[in-house]
Amino acid sequence: SWFGSLVWSIITTLSSFHSTVLMEGLVSDSIINEKNPSLYLKWTTNLIEIKNTVIRGDSAIVGGGIYVINSDNVLIEGSILEKNDVNDGSIEEINISGYGGALHVKNSTITISNSEFIKNSGSGDGNLGAAIHGENSQIFMDGSKINENRNEGTSSRGAGIYLVGGSSPSVIINSEIRGNEAKRGAAIYLDQNDLKLERMIIS
């Protein structure tokens, strides 16, 4: 898709500068790319803002909608990530079971506000985090929804949120996590990670 290639180029280029990058009001729909998600953010300390954006029906091996790596200041606000998917595959000859149907965050800090992660999926056997997968990262979430996400694999974990590693606890407040499905930890799965929850609805 030309949109996926364009956004990928914009983000990886602008993120090398020490200035705020704002993406607002964009719609990404049904981008299928074996290795690259719609938005790929890496090696940036400047502020990246993704606001009022819809990412829907996209697919990759890691981070079906958004992939954030080695970035310190990313904001997702007022956005919808819906019906994105990850599946088993290999990157640089390393087999991966699909991480983060909507969002994969690695070695990063991210804030999510008033956003929705709805009906995202992991289609492979051992998928981790149908909606959100965080690895050695800190996630702050407020006023958001993580609903009806599904990991289909027989050894899948954390359909809503899967968090592994990280020296600082993630925080989720004033949010709801409902109707998610996985073999283990349908709503939340923690692996050597601390998570603080306040004023939550989980069912």
Descriptive account of the structure:
The longest helix has 13 residues, at 2-14. The chain is globular, with a radius of gyration of 15 Å. With 203 residues, the chain is mainly beta. The protein contains one helix and 26 strands. 6% of the residues lie in helices and 45% in strands. A seven-stranded parallel beta sheet has the order 1-4-8-14-18-22-25, with no helix packed on it. Mean pLDDT is 83; it is low at 1-17.
List keywords for this structure.
seven-stranded parallel β-sheet; 203 residues; mainly beta; globular; 1 helix; disordered N terminus
The low-pLDDT segments are 1-17
Mean pLDDT rating: 83
Q: Write the H/E string, N to C.
A: HEEEEEEEEEEEEEEEEEEEEEEEEEE
Task: Enumerate the strands of the largest sheet in spatial order, edge to edge or round the barrel.
Answer: 1-4-8-14-18-22-25
The Rg value, from CA coordinates, equals 15 Å
Summarize the structure.
The chain is mostly beta strands and 203 residues long. It has one helix at 2-14, and strands spanning 21-24, 27-29, 39-44, 48-51, 54-56, 59-60, 66-71, 74-77, 80-82, 85-86, 89-91, 94-96, 103-106, 109-113, 116-118, 121-122, 132-135, 138-142, 145-147, 150-151, 161-164, 170-173, 176-178, 188-191, 195-198, 201-202.
